Amino acid sequence: MNKELLELSVIDLAEKLRSKAVSPVEVTDNLLSYIEQSNKQTNAYISITAEGARKSAKQAEQDIMGGKYKGVFHGVPLALKDNIYFANEVTTMASKIHKDFVSKDDATVATKLRDAGVIFTGKLNMHEYAWGIDNNNPHFGAVHNPWNADRVPGGSSGGSGAAVASHSSYNTLGTDTAGSIRIPSAACGIVGLKPTHGRVSKFGVYPLAWTLDHVGPMSKTVADAAAMLEVIAGFDPRDPTCANVPVGSYLSALNGNVKGLRIGIIEDYFFKNVDSGIEKVIRDRLTDLEKQGATIVPLKVPALRHSEWAELAVSLTEAATIHHQDLIKRPDDFGGDIRFLFELGELFSGIDYLQAQQVRRALKQQFTATFKDVDVIIAPTLPCQVPNIGTDTVNINGKTLDFIDEGIRFTGPSNLTGLPAVTVPAGISDGMPVGLQIIGPAFEEARILNVAYAVENMKPLAGHQPVLKP
Predict the structure, then answer these.
(1) How far apart are CA 176 and CA 53, in angstroms?
(2) Pick the catalytic residue: 38, 56, 81, 185?
(3) Are 121 and 79 in contact (CB under 8 A)?
(4) Catalytically annotated residue among 23, 38, 56, 156
(5) What distance in Å separates the CA atoms of residue 325 and residue 339, rounded to the nearest whole number?
(6) pLDDT tens-digit map of 353-412
(7) Is 84 contained in some domain?
(8) What residue range is the signal peptide (predicted)?
(9) What percent of the chain has pLDDT over 70?
């Protein structure tokens, strides 16, 4: 097993593949060998498609050797979250009910990655039906955080976070309805991008809540996330929520220059009830950004005080609608935690749902107004450390609180507004990584990625690495 090869970013690996210093077959065989070892510890994969991966690797090798190099992702092996469809392959949604589901179509994002030359190594574990943030799955087992195997990896894209952090997938996609890309990315010390709603097609991705769902990259580096967004972004007529907005060159926009950047800080929401160690890390990075020429601007967004209720009212109602028939016909086939949530979703009235939409409208209007005064908003991604597997509470400065409520508190507003948000590792607290969240105006992914790039260039992890590594 080649440890150095496993630890490369996609951008660095791509250069070796393009120059023929290594072959897709060599890279894929090396990764598959490592997956066999690492998955026993992380349980990040639900299924491993070694035969198909090796076949794709041979084809990629022939193409590259023949001068038909497609770009950054050509010959790069990676796995996807198991609610993203592959044609004629099982997609389980990490559930019992859909354990044998086979789609006739690829998800649009899967097609785009396949066309870019990606080699798929399998499907990644997740919280059942993507409704949860601990990834303690009753059907496929818990995913273990590579930084501490006793801890949850965050969710719902917990397998995705653990796979990238442990180097068993070079890159991946997650889905995000209330934070499910950003929460595990923060917990596992990687980069996670939730693009603007409509920026990336959701066709062929099993829904959790239609109006809140997003698909986006989970990556080792900001540059890797930018490169993947270039591949997957764009209009798709098969997704009625997809926006016909031109796709930028996100990778070329990364220069790390934050001189003159106006950073909005919402103290009475995003810095309220935050673990003291996490808060120190975020404020230290803000100070660093100021030293590089950025300015801090205090903001008020009054509608945020209702955002937690609105997020739950919308997401639970929409999710309960999607799963209504199965709740009637086979309720015992759901895991206990999500069955409770889906049943709770049936209790909201039409009035509740529409009032939540009014909060949502106010939140969108107020956030839009703030971006006249600031360029980005910065906040902690999580207000707390992730708990041990099997524990549904967290401790924030001596207070015992519900993990799911706290976990989505800072991520949910960007799902309600649809605004782009990225989390980037910002430091270490109590031996675990801390994520810094950057929120920007609609379709300004290049802007928030560049700020994330500036933070990444500070080397905030200071050499700390997951316990589980090649």
Answers:
(1) 27
(2) 81
(3) yes
(4) 156
(5) 12
(6) 999 999 999 999 999 999 999 999 999 999 999 999 999 999 999 999 999 999 999 999
(7) yes
(8) none
(9) 100
Q: Kindly name the residue from 180, 201, 219, 315 that is annotated as catalytic.
A: 180
Task: Please report which helix (H) or strand (E) contains residue 216, including its range.
Answer: strand 214-219
Length of the chain: 470
DSSP for 387-444, please give it. -BTT--EEEETTEEEEHHHHHTTTTHHHHHH---EEEEEEEEETTEEEEEEEE-STT-
Return all residues near 302 (Cβ < 8 A) that are at least 6 apart: 366
Q: What pLDDT, on a 0 to 100 scale, did the predictor assign at position 468?
A: 83
30: domain CATH number?
3.90.1300.10
Dihedral sign of CA atoms 448, 454, 456, 460 in order: negative
User: Residue 37 is part of which domain span?
Assistant: 3-232
Predicted confidence (pLDDT) per residue in 138-156, tens digit? 999 999 999 999 999 999 9
Between CA 309 and CA 315 the distance in angstroms is: 10
* Residue 183 · residue 407 · CB < 8 Å: yes
| 3-state SS, residue 152 | coil
The number of folded domains in the chain is: 1
Instruction: Take residue 311 and report the two structure tokens written for it.
Output: 């997020």
pLDDT of res. 355: 98
**Of the candidates 407, 411, 429, 430, which has an alpha carbon nearest to the alpha carbon of residue 420?**
411
Distance between alpha carbon 369 and the CA centroid of its chain, in Å?
27
- Classify residue 321: in a domain, yes or no: no
Q: Whole-number mean pLDDT of the chain? A: 97
**Cβ neighbour number for residue 19 with a 10 Å cutoff:** 10
Which run of H or E residues covers position 51? helix 50-65
DSSP state of 205: B
Residue 303's pLDDT is 98
- Mean of pLDDT values over 213-223: 98
Rounded Cα distance, 402 and 404, in Å: 6
- Distance (Å, rounded) from C-alpha 190 to C-alpha 116? 23
The structure's pTM equals 0.97
Report yes or no on 47 lying in a domain. Answer: yes
Amino acid at 266: I
Residue 103 annotated in active site: no
Average pLDDT over residues 87-95: 98
Element (H, E) at 173: strand 171-176
Both tokens assigned to 315: 């997401």
267: exposed, middle or buried (Cβ count in 10 Å: 0-12, 13-18, 19+): exposed
Q: Would residue 184 count as lying in a domain?
A: yes
Query: Does residue 272 carry a catalytic annotation?
Result: no
pLDDT at 469: 79
Amino acid at 125: N
Q: Are 152 and 187 in contact (CB under 8 A)?
A: yes
Closest CA to 46 of 7, 6, 87, 96: 96
CB neighbour list of residue 40: distance below 8 Å, 6 or more residues apart: none
